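Query form — protein Expansin

QUESTION: What is the three-dimensional structure of this chain?
INPUT:
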Amino acid sequence: MIYGQVAEAPTGDVAEAPGTDSLDGEWYDARATFYGDIHGGETQQGACGYGNLFRQGYGLATAALSTALFNDGYTCGACYEITCAHDPQWCLPGSIKITATNFCPPNYTKTHDIWCNPPQKHFDLSLAMFLKIAQYKAGVVPVRYRRVPCVKKGGVRFEITGNPYFLMILPYNVGGAGDIKAVQVKGNKTGWITMRKNWGQHWTTNVVLTGQQLSFRVTTSDGVTKDFVNVAPKTWGFGQTFNGRINF
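ANSWER: The structure tokens for Expansin are given below.
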């Protein structure tokens, strides 16, 4: 459930820093497979920490990334354009755009079909996305890919979990670069507190902030920083999600 607290318009000491590292829009070679069923079964939740991908706005346009692309979860939320290439027997025309929402783990017990083992660059797509660029019988196809800006509807969402001594924040529905490299939180009685990446896109602090209005400062991988002011009211609770109102 998204609670109704609306973040205030940024004012004062708000960071609105331009990016210092533009997205790399070059095309690169990789491979792609698929997992789950046509309805997205098995693609929900996953190593990025997202939950119901339909409710969170990602839908079926998702992929699990191999180790070479996953970057220990820092790439979660990044968007890619992918096209099938160099295989006219199985490739279909056109391209897809997906968000990275999961990890395709390596399997060191196998000696063939080791698509997700380092240093392979690999996208394990939802079946619905795979079928847009290749025939089902192909199973695996060579692809070309590039980073693209994420286009999301509405504001960045902030899911709050944990306990009073372990605050955990999951930002999702992030536009622009999509992937996050730094998060800070601020109570109405504190300054900005740097959060630690815990796993996937979960960010944590041990500072007790219960009973305080919360603001968030988020920096995406391209160096763009935005403040989300007074996102959660003093009465916020664990398990709630709040709308940051603005996006990248």
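ADDITIONAL NOTE: The chain is about 5% helix and 40% strand.
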